[in-house]
Specification:
Family: Belongs to the binding-protein-dependent transport system permease family.
CATH class of the largest domain: Mainly Alpha
Number of domains: 2
CATH topology of the largest domain: MetI-like fold
Structural class: alpha+beta
Protein name: Peptide ABC transporter permease
CATH architecture of the largest domain: Orthogonal Bundle
Number of helices: 12
Pfam families: BPD_transp_1, OppC_N
Order of helices and strands: HHHEEEEEHHHHHHHHH
Strand content: 5-15%
GO biological process, one term: transmembrane transport
Keywords: Membrane, Transmembrane, Transmembrane helix, Transport
Largest sheet: 3 strands, antiparallel
Strand order of the largest sheet: 1-2-3
CATH superfamily of the largest domain: MetI-like
Helix content: 55-70%
């Protein structure tokens, strides 16, 4: 039998950390949320979409500062005026514009004179407004001297600035999606958790009700609910009710998904240990079940925002959503329902580009979040 010879104990033996035993690594100390953030930043499209959306929301916040003209100001001299032509006259300027009537076609047309440009002033004075609804000011990003008008995206049938109305409409179209999804997410997460955790008769009743909602056609249901709203309702009340209508059906799908997650978590060992330790149902739900389903809820909510934006735009386009004097992207697109109008005045479709841009950005962010929360990515 061979006997192993142990080395004698001596002062020349290095300590454990110098004898090849590595110090504990800090890699395992990275939290799940930090790992998700790293994966999300690795997606360049998703990160770029966050920047684009941030710009859109900043435009909505500073809409009156960015707009050179009031969004609701009508001007018969600018009816269907094309975007202002740019020129250089010792600095950036616009060509002056004169309206005339084409007697052959009985249409108003415009003559431009670029020889005598109208200088564009940066941070110039214009119409008065209240920044953030509190600070009175008359400064705007770009202005021109009266009686000329700077029309970045042209004018509509009543001579109103399309750019100013698009920035103002972003406040409704971009926020109604977030608020509607927030309400729907709260309902879906709460009802789905209750259904999956308690089971039994409560689960059966809630699931049958959810199946009933999912069986209804979404757009006709929205149209019917929006059509019964009074036409003389205030803009604020209509905004709130349209938000509730859009969130009535959206929560059902999320509730079923959360229910499936909670059913899987309810049989986990840590839930059984929490029950053995004397934790109540509320503590188990809010401490163990919902946090584990948070990543899935966030991804589903982010993917639901563009659908809500499209729904509001569709309802307003059809004349049963937000109505004038309210301004939203759907209201602006209602002016472009005629093919002949679009052919003659294509700038009326610019708000549609904003809808497409916002929807694509939200979808890319949702895809990035979905990949970030995937443990196998």
């Amino acid at each position: 039998m061979t006997t192993a010879v142990l080395p004698e104990t001596g002062s020349d033996i290095p300590p454990p950390d110098q004898a090849g035993i590595a110090e504990p690594s800090s890699i395992g100390e990275v939290s799940q949320w930090r790992l998700m953030a790293r994966r999300f930043r690795a997606s360049r499209l998703a990160a770029a979409s966050v920047i684009v959306l941030l710009i859109l929301y900043l435009c909505a916040v500073f809409a009156t500062f960015l707009a050179p003209n009031p969004y609701d100001q009508q001007d018969s001299d600018q009816k269907y005026a094309a975007p202002s032509a740019l020129t250089w006259d010792g600095g950036p300027a616009i060509c002056s514009k004169t309206q005339y009537l084409d007697k052959a076609r009985f249409e108003y047309k415009y003559r431009t004179d670029c020889d005598n440009g109208v200088p564009i002033r940066v941070f110039g004075r214009g119409f008065e407004y209240k920044l953030f609804g509190v600070i009175p000011t008359d400064r705007h990003l770009l202005t021109v001297a009266a009686p000329h008008k700077l029309l970045l995206w042209g004018a509509d049938s009543q001579g109103r600035d399309v750019f100013a109305r698009a920035m103002q409409g972003a406040r409704v179209s971009l926020t109604i999606g977030l608020i509607g999804v927030a309400v729907g997410t709260f309902l879906g997460a709460t009802i789905g958790t209750v259904s999956g955790f308690f089971g039994g008769a409560i689960d059966n009743i809630l699931q049958r009700f959810i199946e009933l909602l999912l069986s209804l056609p979404t757009l006709p249901l929205w149209l019917a609910l929006a059509a019964i709203l009074p036409q003389d309702m205030s803009v604020t009340n209509r905004y709130l009710l349209i938000t509730l209508i859009l969130s009535l059906v959206g929560w059902a799908g999320l509730a079923r998904q959360v229910r499936g997650k909670v059913l899987g978590y309810s049989s986990s060992e840590y839930v059984a240990a929490a029950r053995a330790a004397g934790s109540g149902n509320a503590r188990i739900v809010f401490t163990h079940l919902l946090p584990n389903a948070t990543s899935h809820i966030v991804v589903t909510a982010m993917l639901a925002v563009p659908a809500t934006i499209i729904a509001e735009t569709s309802l307003s386009f059809l004349g049963v959503g937000m109505l004038p004097p309210a301004v939203s992207w759907g209201v602006l697109l209602s002016d472009a329902q005629s093919v002949s109008t679009v052919q003659q005045y294509p700038w009326l479709l610019i708000p549609a580009g904003l809808v497409v841009l916002a929807v694509i950005c939200f979808q890319l962010i949702g895809d990035g979040l979905r990949d970030a929360v995937d443990p196998y990515s």
